[in-house]
Amino acid sequence: MLQRYTFRIAIGLVALAMLLPMTVHPTMAKNARTNIRTTITFQNAVTLAGKQLKAGDYQVSADDSKVTVSQHGKVVAEAPAQWKDGNGKSEYSQVVTDSGTVTEIHFQGKTRYVSLSQ
Question: pLDDT for 6-37, tens place per residue?
Fold first, then answer.
């Protein structure tokens, strides 16, 4: 009788062990953080999140929810961001502007890009 219960417990533990990776994996993927950094050179002055940025080199980092633009180690602009899927990998890091306002940031070697809410 004791062997029968031991066997059932062992089967239950094996079944639980098999289900655990299936329940943990999607949660881990959903909570994975995106953090991409690059340097972008603005040839002309642009506006990002209401801030005027002069022509020059800037360090751009993007995580799951925002884009941060820094110059010489100082944050000069932050904007809420939404990730979108592109058609293919970007050959180089670049920005898309509309009337001088940054609307998208594409990162070299990545298919996903950031769309900025203005």
Answer: 656 655 555 545 554 444 444 334 444 568 99
Same domain (yes/no): 19, 58:
no
Buried b (16+ CB within 10 A) or exposed e, 96-108: eeeeeebebbbbe
Total number of domains constituting the chain: 2
Give the strand pairing for 46-48 and 51-53: antiparallel
Same domain for 5 and 54, yes or no, is no
Q: Are residues 67 and 111 in the same domain?
A: yes
| Residues 61, 19 share a domain | no
User: Can you give the residue range of the structural domain that contains 73?
Assistant: 36-116
Q: Which long-range contacts (CB under 8 A, 24 or more apart) does 58-65 make?
A: 60/93, 60/105, 61/35, 61/36, 61/37, 62/34, 62/35, 62/36, 62/105, 62/107, 62/114, 63/33, 63/34, 63/35, 64/33, 64/34
